[in-house]
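hey
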């Protein structure tokens, strides 16, 4: 089983790497080449760089992900595709995407896009907080326990 990180805007990479490494999970970071880094990671962490295209990281993750893998993303569309493949999918705030909630999230995203297209403004995401990080870590550890048990 592999943990995939949709990494371009992921504020919890260090939590994922630290906790995933402790439990000896394979971790794959997928990010655009514009985020190139010479930072050294543990041997279980592999970084894949993709073009700067809008969906390049998403396409690469979906090529690699398999049933039972864990994905961390804030992208509802990618979450939907990964759920259909049988992956566990978490948002970086710890929220778990499920087949029961993804349709509503996608509909909300669509309606917000229509409002913006008509020239109106919508609220952006709330700032990431320490509480969000703590909640993510808690939910991530639960997800890792689920993966270990299967």
């Amino acid at each position: 089983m592999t943990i995939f990180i949709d990494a371009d805007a992921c504020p919890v990479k260090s939590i994922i790497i630290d906790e995933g490494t402790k439990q000896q999970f394979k971790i794959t970071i997928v990010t655009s080449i514009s985020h190139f880094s010479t930072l050294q990671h543990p041997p279980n962490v592999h970084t894949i760089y993709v073009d700067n295209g809008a969906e390049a990281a998403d396409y690469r993750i979906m090529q690699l992900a398999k049933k039972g893998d864990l994905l961390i993303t804030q992208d509802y569309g990618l979450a939907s595709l990964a759920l259909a493949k049988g992956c566990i999918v978490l948002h970086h705030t710890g929220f778990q995407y499920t087949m029961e909630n993804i349709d509503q999230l996608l509909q909300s995203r669509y309606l917000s896009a229509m409002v913006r297209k008509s020239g109106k403004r919508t609220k952006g995401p709330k700032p990431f907080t320490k509480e969000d990080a703590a909640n993510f870590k808690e939910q991530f550890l639960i997800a890792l326990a689920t993966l270990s048990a299967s």
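The first helix runs from residue 13 to 22. Residues 2-99+129-149 form a domain with the Rossmann fold fold (CATH 3.40.50).
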